[in-house]
Structure formats: structure tokens, C-alpha cells
Amino acid sequence: MVLENKITLPSPYLSKKLEIETLRHCLNNSAFVGYEMYLVTNGVKRRYDFIELDNQYLDLIAYVGVEYGFIGEAKSQAWNITSMATLLRKKPIFTVFCELSVKGQYNNYLYKSKFKTIREKSVYNMIQKTKDEIKDILQTHGEIY
């Protein structure tokens, strides 16, 4: 059984600054802990699944990954944390990733794709293209889409 998840992509920018207590916690940890705190504060996730498959023979991983950039208050706050300098240079990018494989068989892919872009419209187009291709493959394997 296939489950399509309707996703709405967030802005690829982190704009809300951290609370003082959260910021103090980030100062004692790596930049990646700080980055995760900014994600939570801005109410976004790194990964948005757009198709799920419940099948005893096949595994499906299909998601849009988002790498966020910093703007506004978040950027000015993060700029003062020396460990976050590498993350401040990151540009926002979307990654559409899909992998359909046979369960229990390493590197036995029926379908695999990875698409990176900065344009949100391109992401939605690639999601639809991926869904169509997965649908065709599953129908040839007797799966009801």
C-alpha cells in the first residue's frame, strides 16, 4: 500500500533568533547542535517524506531534504557565535531523494534518484515526476498504487 504525503515546503531561511537560555546551551556545544536549535525555534524540519510504502518485499525512501540559510535576527545572532561560522556560509538548497529497493538485498535498487535545486517550483515538479515513476515501477511489480 502506498501513502502519499502532501507536503508544503517552508522557506529555506532561518530568521528567528534563539532564546537566551538556548543560546547559552549552544555556546557549550558544536555548531550542529546550534543549527538544530535554530530549526526547532523556527518550527522546521530537515526532512519531509512525500511517499511511504507498506510492502513486505520492497523498501521505499522518498523525501525532500532542506538545508537552511540564515537571515535577519538569526543571522546576526549566529554571527556572534564563532563555532557557527561554517554554517553561516551555507546557502539554502532543496534535495529530492528517492530510493526503491528490494528488502534484504544490499544495493539492489529498482529506482534511485537525487536532485538538488534552489528553486521551490523545481522541487514540486521533481516530486511529481518521482511519484509517477514509482507508480509505474510498483504497478509492474503488482503493487496497487
Provide the descriptors you would attach to this structure in a database record.
single chain, 145 residues, alpha+beta, four-stranded antiparallel sheet
SSE layout:
Layout: E1 2-4, E2 13-14, H1 20-27, H2 31-42, E3 47-49, E4 51-53, E5 58-67, E6 69-70, H3 72-79, H4 85-88, E7 93-102, E8 109-117, H5 120-140
Parallel strand pairs: 2-6
Antiparallel strand pairs: 1-4, 3-5, 5-7, 7-8
Task: Walk me through the structure.
By secondary structure, the protein is an alpha+beta fold. The protein has one domain. The protein has helices spanning 20-27, 31-42, 72-79, 85-88, 120-140; strands at 2-4, 13-14, 47-49, 51-53, 58-67, 69-70, 93-102, 109-117. α1 runs antiparallel to α2. The longest helix is centred in the C-terminal third of the chain and has 21 residues, at 120-140. The model has no long low-confidence stretch (mean pLDDT 91).
Rg, alpha carbons: 18 Å
Structural class call reads alpha+beta
Strand order, largest beta sheet: 3-5-7-8
| H/E topology pattern | EEHHEEEEHHEEH
Measured between the Cα atoms of the first and last residue, the distance is: 7 Å
Work out the strand percent: 25-35%
**In DSSP terms, counting alpha (H) and pi (I) runs of 4 or more, how many helices?**
5
Portion of residues within helices: 25-40%
Number of individual domains: 1
The description of the largest β-sheet is:
4 strands, antiparallel
Total number of β-strand segments? Answer: 8
The mean pLDDT is: 91
Low-confidence stretches: none
